[in-house]
Amino acid sequence: MKLIEEAGIEPTVVKYLETPPSHDGLRKLLDDAGLRPSEAIRTKEAVYKELGLATATEDELLDAMVDNPILIERPIVVTDRGTVLARPYEKVREIL
């Protein structure tokens, strides 16, 4: 957040647990960031293991992320210059 604010951008924060993305919305975010679901899923979450997602297809992972938004890696940052999964946080500089 600090990097974004220092760039003069007033961020809009979407609390994904309170307002989870739709299937199409998440697909677009990932596509815009050039990510597959397997690259944006939190594999250390208990629900990942509970659902047996280690062998899931990309489509199954996307469905699981929509149904269980806690699985979505964060933060995903969107600006006019692009979309990135800001892990590590310095990646946000690519789109500022």
Features:
single chain; 96 residues; two-stranded antiparallel ribbon
Task: Give a brief rundown of this model.
The chain has 96 residues and is of the alpha+beta class. It has 4 helices and 2 strands, in the order ααααββ.
The CATH homologous superfamily: Glutaredoxin
The radius of gyration computed from the alpha-carbon positions, rounded to a whole number of angstroms, is 14 Å
| Total helical segments | 4
How much of the sequence lies in strands comes to 5-15%
What is the chain-wise order of helices and strands?
A: HHHHEE
Which strand order do you get reading across the main beta sheet? Answer: 1-2
Oligomeric state of the chains present here: single chain
Secondary structure tally: strands? 2
Helix content: 25-40%
Shape: elongated
Tally of structural domains: 1
Average pLDDT level: 93
The CATH topology assignment is: Glutaredoxin
Low-confidence region ranges = none
CATH architecture type? 3-Layer(aba) Sandwich
User: What is the CA-CA span between the terminal residues?
Assistant: 12 Å
CATH class: Alpha Beta
Overall structural class, as computed from helix and strand content, comes to: alpha+beta
Query: What about the largest sheet?
Result: 2 strands, antiparallel
